[in-house]
Each structure stands twice: as structure tokens, then as C-alpha cells.
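DOMAIN: structural biology
WANTED: fold as C-alpha cells
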Amino acid sequence: MKLSKYGLGDADSSGSETLLLYRENHYNDKEVAGYLNKAWQALIDMGFDMIFGAFRGIHYYQKNDEVCVTFQKQLGLGDQVMMVAFKKGDWRIDFAYKALIDIEKERSSR
């Protein structure tokens, strides 16, 4: 599956090669592309596409039963990571949970 639309390059047949800092292992390429499409549409709907920098990760946040797509803001103060959280057909945009940012930081330092 081609994920280059999102700056992710081409995933190999195992789905392991993307430029996301973090990706839940149980999501296949089709699911990843689907969540990225939904997140991008949510960003456009809310006008956040003007501050979008890059997608960072796709997480399942068990505590709230949400799938969270994190992204980097390109404008604003400091290094802010936002997320689009999906839960039972609804979505919201918010600051990313600290736990998700910590996972991505750990992954990027490897």
C-alpha cells in the first residue's frame, strides 16, 4: 500500500516500514491509511490543516478506548504535539496525552 500521500514512503509487505515515530503493531497498512485519511479530514474540517506539520504516530489508548493519531504543529509556541482521537465513530482534536508523547520520544531515541 502506498502511504506516500502522508510522507510515509511505501510500506513493505509486512507493513513495518513507515516514517511514523510509533505505530501500533496490530494495525495493518489499510487501517493505518484509513486512520490517517480520517485524521487529515478532521484537520481540514477544523481548519488545523494550516498548522499541520507531520503525522507522528498511531496509538490505541486503552484507558479511554480511543485510537489516537498524533501530529506535530508547525506554528505556535514551542514543540506542541496534538492528536485526533477517534472513539466509536466520533473524533476530537486535542493536545496529545503525555503517555503517547513519551512512547514516541523513546522510539525516536533508539
